[in-house]
Automatic annotation (TrEMBL):
This is 10590_t:CDS:1. The keyword Signal applies. InterPro entries: Gal_Oxase/kelch_b-propeller (IPR011043), Kelch-typ_b-propeller (IPR015915). It comes from Cetraspora pellucida. Coiled coil: none annotated.
Amino acid sequence: MNIFMKVGLSYLVLIFTLFITTSNGATPISPAGRSYSCSVTINNKLYVFGGDPFGIIGTTQAIYLDISLIGTPNPWFLLTDIPTSVSAANAVFNGNNTVFLINYSTVYAYNISNNQWYPTDINGIIPQSRTQATAVIDKNGMIWYFGGTNVTTNTSFNDINYFDTITYSWSVGSTVNAPTTRFNMISIFLPSREILYIGGVDGSTRRYIDMAQGRELFTAILAQDGTIIIYGGNNIKNSPTPTMAKLNTNTSPYTWTSNEISSDAPQYLTGHVAATNGTHMILALGATSNNGIFDLTDKYTIINSLNYNIYTLNIQTNVWSVNSTTHKSVTSPTSSNTPNGKNIDANIGIIVVVIIAVILVIIAGVLAFVFYRKCKKNNKDKEVKIIRISGSNDNEQPQ
């Protein structure tokens, strides 16, 4: 292989590598708005999986946000697609490179180091299929999976199942003194090894579980001082009050206090995700409302109410900041949310990168070929011709 072909192949490999890196999340994207996502926080990165405006179809899209960049425009980054569409699922991190995603009792494993999904060979007593359940993981790698509902059979659950992330095995936990059936609640794993279940909907009465006013589709984070901060949510159509409340887990019994929020805070937010980097609480995605009323029957109202801002609360000073982004209103079903959840703008960007890469490879190849032919012609012109004379002897020694 001549040097020009080697150079051409080197350019091809470089451009292909650039494309792969770009398509796997090295390039910021503007993700489509969504609710019903699940999320985990790892090393000051908020990983978000699936979701859609209505919590029905779901998406295969996985994205992340660097939440260490407080006070600066925070771009989202695209990750490798989930093997299936996901909505109202659960995600936990095992502390050792792997995120486990539970969707309808099926478990998927995602490696954060190489950005790849892997199948899991599950055994044990697999829970009944459900959605809108809740899950936490303990320090031993055991996932505790509680509640949920099956909308097809109209069945709700109050069983607790646990999944061993070492053996990939499901087991059934105790139901002694278990709470009533419920879904759309939140679970917090406390340092005392207790699991605290907050809010949600009672599966039998379809009433909201009493707390700092019953709600669903809200978020909760555990602050460093042991305080749990809940935010937003809804109860049927209205935004519950207080919008933000704190639960002190250092007292017995635990005590609720309401928090007033400033005009910089999202006044009404539901179906969002939340994270903390230790000093701040970060809220993203979900849907907002100007008056606290969520019309869940009008799909265009929901889509146009989707939140594209990133809100940040300083937990110590109670000061809010917001990184605003722009988005287009939707007037027809042909919105930026494609059926499989991929963002059209991101796909167009990838296609453009591919086209540019192909053009550059062709140009590099043509130039290398022309240069090679020119050099070959010049070398041919400079060749020294040897003419043999009949009767001469190359081996003859001089006298």
